[in-house]
Amino acid sequence: MSYLPTRWTELIGRPANDIDTPALVIDLDAMKRNLARMAEFAKKHGIRWRPHAKTHKSTTLAKMQIRAGAVGVCVQKTAEAEVMMAGGVYNVYISNEVIAPGKLVRVAALAQTAAAHGGQLAIAVDSTEGVIRLAQAMNEARVNSSRAGNDVANVATVIDVFVEIDVGQGRCGVEPGAAAVTLVLELRKHPALRFAGLQAYHGKAQHLRSAQDRREAIVKAADAVRLTRQLIEAQGVAVGLVTGAGTGCLVLEAASGVYGELQAGSFLFMDADYALNERDPAQPQFEHALFVKTQVISTHSDHAVCDAGHKSHAIDSGMPRVHALSPDSALDYFNGGDEHGILRPAAGCSRLPGLGRMLWLIPGHCDPTVNLHDVMIGVSGGLHNGVVQRIYRVNARGALT
Fold first, then answer.
1. Strand (E) positions, 36-187?
2. For a surface tag, which of 211, 232, 282, 394 has the fewest beta carbons within 10 Å of its beta carbon?
3. CA 386: distance to chain centroid?
4. Alpha-carbon distance 57 to 371, whole Å?
5. SS3 sequence of 252-297
6. What CATH homologous superfamily does 29-269 map to?
7. Across residues 311-338, what is the average pLDDT?
């Protein structure tokens, strides 16, 4: 277990009100319900789920998800994969391109570590150069291990590789169709690489507000996958798995008939941005489970000030929402800078919180918010009357390379 300073461990068993501010807090009861609903959904639809660990960056929570039925975790960075494996999570998919030679040396080492522990490392590619560099790194790692007399070289002979196609995100990925076929044929030339399937993640679709707009986007994505799979299989190559999907559209990918694995991660916590989506009736009812606890430190005639500024929560998806204590005391949060938040009564309300009042913020975007904190404090029994039960180290905080 990672070392935790006494100031954190001494909180266990104490009321949630004793948590100093600002602090990142998990409503454990809500989180466990979210996890159970995801596991139930995947089981009902006969689909694998591999949640994104970049959401929580915690090896403890990654293991909890695997115990609930996840096949492993996704990460976006080599350093995140290293942290996961150092913490005992050995089925990891780097759902991103890695090009730098130094990073590829680390990727090859991770493949050996995973194999030695009965796990498997996978990675995405979207260029011929990326395939060649990856194969070279894997080959060199095997030769170096053999020269060093390392027995692991005999088991870490391959890495699973997903060819990423751009199904609408407009970020990484080759064009669906012939370009993907070219990459598949190239990677099959290299014994150290095993074609595992297609990466088809549509990030933009996750945040389209209209349920109909999300449906239309995923229909187009699924059509692109079908075309690509058909062309690959025409070359006599089986497409083992199509992986992708996120919290906003997972019900659509699961129903498409082409996706075999869901990568949704934010469902565990849910943030203010996802709450703005029109809910698809078939979507599991995920709850807000991640909060920034804050305290009112200054009051004025028309506003109050809390001690949670932008250093405690990400703002790329907008300002956090203030968790309403009651309908007549709803508050809006405004930019107050690095260390402060400005609070004003919401429309139709007039009450402001008093000096010293504890409040709870729902972050706009959970992933980068987590990356701002060393720990997440788990509370059972509700935010207001609950008790601190667990302290979760954010093991992969700052794992950006």
1. 48-49, 73-75, 91-94, 120-125, 159-164
2. 282
3. 27
4. 8
5. HHHHHCCCCEECCCHHHCCCHHHHCCCCCCCCCCCCCCEEEEEEEE
6. Alanine racemase (3.20.20.10)
7. 90
Q: Which two tokens stand for residue 189?
A: 């030339």
Query: Which two three-digit tokens encode residue 253?
Result: 């990918």
What's the mean pLDDT in 216-231? 98
Mean pLDDT for the stretch of residues 142-163: 74
Separation CA 327–CA 336 (nearest Å): 24
Hey, what amino acid is at 63? K
The answer for residues whose C-beta is within 8 angstroms of residue 293's C-beta and 6 or more apart is 16, 19, 21, 22, 23, 24, 25, 308, 358, 359, 360, 361, 383
What's this model's pTM, rounded to 2 decimal places?
Answer: 0.94
pLDDT band with cut points at 50, 70 and 90 for residue 291: very high
The Cα–Cα gap between 65 and 172 comes to: 27
Count of residues for the chain?
401
Mean pLDDT of 369-374: 97
Q: Kindly tell me if the per-residue pLDDT of 119 is higher than 80.
A: yes
pLDDT score, position 9:
82
* φ, ψ dihedrals at 33, nearest 5°: -65, -40
Q: Which of 127, 131, 93, 130 is nearest to 110 (CA)?
A: 93
CA distance 176 to 281: 30
Cα dist from 379 to 139, 253, 291, 357, 371, whole Å? 47, 33, 11, 19, 19
Q: What angle do CA 75, 191, 173 make, to 5 degrees?
A: 40
What is the C-alpha to C-alpha distance for residues 225 and 230, in angstroms, rounded to an integer? 8
On whether the CB atoms of residues 137 and 107 are closer than 8 A, the answer is: yes
Q: Which two tokens stand for residue 191?
A: 């014994």
- Exposed/middle/buried for 95, CB within 10 Å: 0-12, 13-18, 19+? buried
Residue in 185, 173, 201 with CA at minimum distance from that of residue 97: 173
Q: Which amino acid is at 315?
A: I
Q: Nearest to residue 288, comparing CAs of 389, 178, 362, 396?
A: 362
Peptide bond connecting 15 to the previous residue in cis, omega within 30 degrees of 0: no
Q: CB of 270 within 8 A of CB of 289?
A: yes
